Amino acid sequence: MTDRKLLVTLVLLACLPAPGLSQGFNGRARTYLSGLQIREWVLDSVPAGWVGGSGAQRVLADGTPAVCNPDFCTFYRSGHALGVIPVLQDVEINAWPGITGLRAYAHLRLRESIGEWRRIWPGMEERFEAMSAWVEYTRSFYRLQAGRIWKTSALGFYNYDGGTISLRLPTHLDVAVFGGLSLVRGAVDLRPSGLLSPVEPLGPREDAYLGGAEARWRPFPALSASFIYQREEATHSGDLFSERMGGSARILFRGASLEVEGKYDLAREEVNLARAAVTSPVFLGLQARAEA
Predict the structure, then answer these.
(1) Largest Cα–Cα distance of the chain, in whole Å?
(2) Residue 21 parent element (H or E)
(3) Are 113 and 84 in contact (CB under 8 A)?
(4) CA gap 125, 167 in Å, rounded
(5) 88/133 Cα distance (integer angstroms)
(6) Other CB atoms closer than 10 Å to residue 276's CB: what's the count?
(7) Which of 112, 122, 224, 281 could make an S-S bridge to 87, C-beta 3.0–4.6 Å?
(8) Cβ-based burial of 214 (10 A; exposed 0-12, middle 13-18, buried ≥19)
(9) Entry pTM
(10) Can you give the pLDDT at residue 5?
């Protein structure tokens, strides 16, 4: 019993942060400045008698589509030219506090628009935004990560506020479990209600959880494989937003390679992707490739 307690104590001590020799930070700042001239859409109307044809859907003499009632036909036309100068300031920071394995990262974005046409440029209502910000602690056999995370996998790009636990097993197998509050894909906004969003810009939030697991296996350099399962569901109602899984494998043999990849939508019971490709050297540095 004493030996077992000693072993557990040693394992726990190995997992604790240890003082390190290096500390500091580095960063990068990028400024994007664009000068654009655009035209906004203007809603206009003409008397219904000026437009030929009948019914609600008609076409003006110049080919512009119009929606008509018994009195008027409404349509969109180009307005006056507007000058827009959007400015984006990105700042990326990596910081090491001096504890072995501990690192912090942040990608911050500041938006500004020169001129009076802020309302027509998308995203300007969010002057400041944390695109990504997390703290990571890494040891030889595990990694912990928490914060605003962008997940890149065979299923695409997903971002969420949560955490990830990754383990490196002795069998050349890496396993990760991740989860948190799901954000809109490609943005850092909370998920809006799908019922009211098309007609109401300030629709209520419809928070969702994102969770899943991923495994990567590479027993030797010529063979690698991965598998991922991911699920999103509403926090309050439990309604399912998505449930998907995907996998891929790659084998190398004497300069040739075989790649297979698949993605399956469990909620819709549909195959999103099924692909196989063979690449082989031919002669004089040329390669032949067949893909289905």
Answers:
(1) 97
(2) none
(3) yes
(4) 40
(5) 18
(6) 12
(7) 112
(8) buried
(9) 0.68
(10) 45
